[in-house]
Amino acid sequence: MMLAGGTIGVGTYYITHLETVPMTGRRRFMSISPESEEKLAKISYQSVMQEASIFVRRVAERIIRASGMTDLHWEVFVIDSPIPNAFVLPGGKVFVFTVRIVWL
Fold first, then answer.
1. pLDDT tens track for 61-92
2. Of 40, 94, 101, 103, which has the maximum CB count within 10 A?
3. Pick from 92, 94, 104: which is nearest to 22 by CA?
4. Do residues 82 and 99 touch, judged by C-beta distance below 8 A?
5. Strands 93-99 and 75-81
6. Coiled-coil annotation: which residues (predicted)?
């Protein structure tokens, strides 16, 4: 009896967590809700951006030391943008744009 109840429970869980993929129309099993998936994506995004900021700052520090202009107060900003770019403003303000990869 317990085996039948467990099987029904697992089957119900499986069926209620199926979704249709928009591009292909195929059904797939998703063990987490779209809301949970979005929260995880935001956390992952923040982690990646933090790592990118650390990397950019390390590179900028090496360039600043090599330039001999260490007397300025340098600030490095990492900006999320689909367009690759970087520039420096007077006063030691360095801006580096990240490039987001969009999967089609």
1. 999 899 888 888 999 998 888 888 999 999 99
2. 94
3. 104
4. yes
5. parallel
6. none
Contacts (Cβ under 8 Å, ≥6 apart) of 18: 27, 28, 29, 30
Phi/psi of residue 18, nearest 5 degrees = -90, 145
Residue 11 tokens read as 């089957």
DSSP letter for each residue of 36-65: HHHHHHHHHHHHHHHHHHHHHHHHHHHHHH
Joined tokens for residue 36: 């949970």
3-state secondary structure of 3: helix
pTM for this entry: 0.55
